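Posting this for the archive.
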Amino acid sequence: MDIIVLQPDTPEENIRHILKKLESKGLKGTISQGTERTIIGVIGDTSRVTEEEEDAIRVMTGVENVVRILKPYKLASREFKKVNTEINVRGSIIGGKKIQVMAGPCAVENKTILMNIAERVKNSGATFLRGGAYKPRTSPYSFQGLGEEGLRYLAEAREKTGLPIVTEIMDPRDMDVIVKYADIIQIGTRNMQNFRLLLEVGSIDKPILLKRGLSATIKEWLMSAEYIMSRGNQNVMLCERGIRTFETATRNTLDLSAVPLLKQLTHLPVVVDPSHGVGKWDLVAPMAKAAVAAGADALMIEVHTNPEEALSDGEQSLRPDLFAKLMRELKPIAEAVGREI
């Protein structure tokens, strides 16, 4: 018993009664309202529910059917929700017809550089500003980010350009300050299976961008999304950013087959980050185009006005003029697959 399908126009009092029944079994219910049906996703160890107990729920007033989901990820599955999830961030819809573009520097370095980049990507058609204030780096001696100072710069850039901001969280202790500034909170690849952090962001009212782990399978990735959703936050988007394989010619192997596969398995929006996927600026544009053709709902692209002087990931950052060119070239591809950009 993982989904309870309700009859049309089931009264609220009947829904509350069903939820109380689940609570008495040590379970929790999450309500999802579709265009035709309302369903209750059952969270918890449903394997302990006997056939007799399941039948008792099936005959409750307002219940049309009780369905078992075979996949280990319940709330993230297409079985739980047939229609695509659309996430509204300050009026921009992620998961709808329009392909959103998140662009900006890997790391916020100073106010002047950030403001310049923000204005340039905005003028080229970007709809979100990305930038890291807290940076997870392989070396402890590399630039680690500006912290709250960087978040303030991002907020100022949002006020000036109107672009909602995407930034990464690394530590639950930074939650309060990041929630104060961010529109979308990113869980980076190294933290995809930081389950304590996933549960923490699951309890807040902010959209979460969950990047795929370095060597994570699709199932592991979706189970991480399930951790977030199990705490009540249903606004999760999945970001393919390349996985680690035997290939060394590129930074990672961008798994674009994950995009249509995820569209089959889950209702969550799918984002592609070609910058981290290839690690080379001259490969970013072709992979961004391929991502749009594959069905991505959004792109995340690193842009910097002076890549050779960037404090983080300059080798994979597009200059603003090349980003503008890419945005122009993406439009006919989006139209060809029934989308817009």
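The chain has two domains: 3-67, 87-336. The first helix runs from residue 12 to 24.
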